[in-house]
Amino acid sequence: MSSPVRTARRAAALAALALAGIGALAAPGPGPAAAAPRVLVLEVTGPITGGTAEYVEAGLLKAKAEGFDAIAFRLDTPGGMLDATREIVGKMLGSEVPVVVWVGPAAAQAASAGAFLTMAAGVAAMHPTSNIGAAHPVTGAGKDVAEEAGKDMAKKVENDTAAFARSIADARGRNADWAEKAVRQSVSVVAEEAVRLRVVDFTARDLPEALAAADGRKVKTGAGERVFRGKGAVLVPLEKTVRQQVLSLIANPNVLALLMLLGTLGIAIEFYHPGGIFPGAAGALLLFLGFLGMRVIPVNAGAVVLILVGVALLVAEGYVAAHGVAGLGGAACIVIGTLFFIDRASPDYHFDPAALSLSPWIVWPTPVALALLLGFMAWKIAGARRAPLQLGAAALVGAEGHALSDLGPGGGEAFVHGEYWQARSAAPIPKGARVRVSAVEGLTVTVVAAGENG
Known about the structure:
The strands form five sheets. The protein has a six-stranded parallel beta sheet, with helices on both faces. A five-stranded mixed beta barrel has the order 14-15-16-18-17. It has a three-stranded mixed beta sheet with strand order 5-7-8. The chain is of the alpha/beta class. The protein has three domains: 38-242, 2-enoyl-CoA Hydratase, Chain A, domain 1 (Alpha-Beta Complex); 252-383; 393-449, CATH 2.40.50.140. Helices cover 47% and strands 18% of the residues. The N and C termini lie far apart (157 Å). The longest helix is centred in the N-terminal third of the chain and has 24 residues, at 3-26.
């Protein structure tokens, strides 16, 4: 091969090596590792109330404003207010941030209104031991609403709620037929069955596992489909405000019953001892919180009236000669009112009837203790009213004091019953000695030395 050809080939090879080197230098190196997704976590437990709706709305706004990759609910609820549930569901369906609901921990439930929230999630998961459903409203005795509110009203409420359930399931591609059965037939299923029926997407033992299992899924949001990122997510909890915490606390039926009972006790004590101020003020505050709680969970108005009448009868026992009849009647009214405190027949609420109930430790011991305390106070007041009236001179006889000067038949001065009195005695009594009043004549007291008869 001629020298010019070899020289050209070498030049071409060198040029190729130079270009490869330049390309290697110009090629971008491996980029930084993608940041872990951030998920805002909300604890949605207990009854669904207006406070819950406020909490969820604040979470959705925060998740969008601060660029969170998703918002997740840890859900465990017996149900709640339909108005609040509709408000929450509407915001979940319109959220531009993917929404995940995990029903947990172990033995948790997404009952009644909670089933709607679970089905409204972009990703729905359940702990293997949890359950979902039971969305048909019943009365406190387990009977159909028609038996108390009438067939027309019952059918209207049922149809409206069933349509609401179907619309949520359709929007998320879930089993709309089952959603309707949950309302009309109050069906409830465990987690594995819920997955098989396409009510939820999968089971997971904790929230991080649920987020990891959903990683890479396409999720519908208010801004269109998004690929969900949840593997290795950083969980950021959202704390409730004081207002939301108070609303959650008084949504507990046991707490609400105690507020009503203790509030009436404070008012009753103020009646027994006017001017104490603190018992009355504390009772009024507790009753205010109780009446606020009555807007959070369904309370039987008749039961509240019975409790108030019972307290009024116990108070009356101390002022009228009822020989215990008023007291016994009052105690009975308080116990019966507590037994029927929760009103599950209300069409404005959607609770699992088995979950929303008063503890036996509230139903029996607390009203009985309250009745015994008020009864004892009534008995003491009645006894005081039957005692002879001790005023004026009659109250002074027998009172003890001390001599302010030497006392004798000629008179002197004594301090008795917190007052200064002109005093005389049959026998001499030295200044400073203890004396006891034996008689009162006008503004002069007759005294004897303390310890003497007379």
